[in-house]
Design brief:
Blueprint: H1 11-21, H2 31-44, H3 47-51, H4 54-72, H5 90-117, H6 144-160, H7 175-189, E1 191-193, H8 203-218, E2 222-225, E3 234-237
Antiparallel strand pairs: 1-3, 2-3
Helix pairs in contact: 1-2, 1-5, 2-4, 7-8
Length: 238
């Protein structure tokens, strides 16, 4: 059961809302600002509501713990006494928000698929033997013309079972359209992973995206960086 407080389905939903309201990039959020806003919101909620949703208070404790570490300037390695906390650094908080945002996008797709499926109605097959009149018998007065008509009727039914001639076409992907999409994507994200640019991993999508990035690098629109060999390629707007 999901308990909602002020239309938020959980503490991560509230945190993500605060980040978007402040118009911040998740990768570059002001952690202390977000923590203060979260605690202000929790303090303004009816305490009876919080009694039924303790996960909000657990997250508040996590954030207070994180803020204390930031104020004391503790390193991430000093975590001998922090095993009970799941958020011990700004990176931990960002990763949780990024993972939750991806979860939200996926559930949105599932919700659309569910709505589309709701437009179709199916019926379980029934046994038609109960509707067959077994008392009918042929009288034996069949002739060649009746047999010919039966054969022609059977041929019509067989023709109905043949598939209709169709032609499947693929949507062509344009490099210019792909570059416009990447520019718009970078306007809100500033710096993104190369793998985040794909709605799907088809061969055509990968090739067009790769060519678009190369052309944008050539025109000095974006800058590529990679911390380690075989690591994630980061794309940043120049």
């Amino acid at each position: 059961m999901n308990l909602c407080i002020n239309d938020f389905e959980g503490p991560l939903d509230l945190l993500l809302h605060l980040v978007k309201t402040a118009k911040m990039d998740i990768y570059e959020i002001d952690t202390k600002y977000i923590i203060d806003k979260y605690l202000e919101f929790i303090d303004s909620i009816d305490k009876n509501d919080l009694d039924d949703a303790s996960e909000y208070l657990v997250m508040a404790a996590e954030l207070i713990h994180l803020k204390s570490r930031l104020l004391l300037n503790l390193d991430d390695d000093n975590n001998e006494d922090d095993s009970e906390f799941s958020i011990n650094s700004e990176e931990d908080l960002k990763n949780k928000l990024i993972e939750y945002e991806r979860y939200q996008s996926v559930t949105g797709i599932f919700r659309q698929l569910e709505e589309k499926r709701g437009e179709f109605f199916t019926k379980i097959p029934e046994n038609l033997k109960d509707f067959i009149d077994n008392d009918e018998h042929l009288e034996g007065n069949m002739d060649a013309d009746l047999l010919k008509e039966a054969l022609l009727e059977l041929q019509k039914r067989l023709n109905y079972q043949k598939p209709i001639n169709t032609r499947i076409t693929r949507k062509e992907l344009s490099v210019e359209e792909r570059k416009d999409y990447i520019r718009e994507y970078l306007e809100t994200r500033k710096k993104v992973k190369f793998t985040d640019l794909f709605e799907d991993y088809s061969k055509e999508m990968i090739v067009v995206t790769f060519l678009s990035i190369l052309d944008m690098c050539k025109n000095k629109e974006v800058m590529l960086s990679q911390k380690d060999n075989f690591g994630e390629i980061l794309i940043e707007k120049v």
